[in-house]
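This follows on from our talk about sequence and fold. Please put the record directly below this note.
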Amino acid sequence: MTDKNLEALVVKVVKKAIKKEMKKLEEDNLPIVSNEVNQQLQNLPETLANDQKTRTTTEIFDDIYTNSFINLPTKEDVELERRLRELKFKQELRKDWILFILKDVIIYAVTILFMFSFAGFYLFTLIHK
């Protein structure tokens, strides 16, 4: 018996809240997108009442509590996130070092070798003429 009284009370409170919000919208003269949306808003309390009749009170409260449940991180999650940040940092550091080695060491050495070989070839052609 108390479940039915509770259901009726919840439905009544929701209907009042929706009607109150609808009146606020009408008072503020906010534009409504279409008549279709307006009709859906007008029929919302009845739709909720019909939905309430098909569902039990425990299902409704389970939906409310599971939807508003905040998942706080556990110690393991915090530790895993810290490790992930460390791994990302190390990976970024490795990438930076590889780019440094490629750009500054290898390309610089190849450029110097090319310049010396070109200068040597030029000197060789000057000497043999």
Summary: The chain has a mean pLDDT of 76.
